[in-house]
Amino acid sequence: MKIVTLSRKASLYSTRRLVEAGEARGHEMPVIDYLRCYMNITSRRPLVLYGGQQVDGVDAVIPRVGATYTFYGLAVVRQFEMMGVFSANESQGISRSRDKLRAMQLLSRAGVGLPITGYAHSTKDVDGVIDIVGGAPLVIKLLEGTQGIGVVLAETRKAAQSVIEAFRGLDANILLQEFIRESGGADIRAFVVGDEVVAAMKRQAEPGEFRSNLHRGGTGSGVELTDDEREVALLAAQTVGLNIAGVDLLRSNRGPLVIEVNSSPGLEGIEKASGIDVADKIITFIEANASSGASRDHISF
Question: Which domain holds residue 31?
Fold first, then answer.
């Protein structure tokens, strides 16, 4: 098979591992910078071109689209889909996951456990939305933030009001969420491939920090998931419409709560913490599904 990885750099750990895993299984594994692709949107004959050459003979693509370039990256993924190419993650699912508010609304409708979450536009409604999430302490999140950037813990109501007013003064969209104190600065990353959670790790924040992201200094270690945690992770990925997802969970007194569904989860931390060859699991999934080219996405919202 010819499996194209859509990535800005071939040297990135996740991209490199996918190429290694695919080549080890006998596949052709080119890496294409999606920002250098351009498209011929012709009736009945959509094309993707790269370096002046038509990209053809592709059986599947693996989108590794960064949050900064979501709009253009998704346009490229959609173009491949229009050409009948199987995408490991479909454009619609990626789009939903990047819109944190939309993802939360979908998860809420599906009955997935979530921290109590509030959203408002006007600063005149600050007190009301703070009350929705149970008051301080509370977590304030930029909708466009990634890797823990734009996530603030407000210890008091006054602090929350100040942060919210500052963000809204910049016309930034934010979510407010209850602070799950019992999680102890740790979360769980469950890595979903198809209909299976193939690996998991516990991420622990460094002392004095509540964000457990590895990019923020958190540490990762292998963890055994409960049956409930596996079910919630699978339901979350399927609800958003992703075949491959990093589902982030908090362990709370009322069960596992989903805080994010990531459509382009990194492989380095999860592979090292779990000892599992996640890249090989992804290639195996593509082998089993690319030939049918069937879409799993039936969510209209």
Answer: 3-96
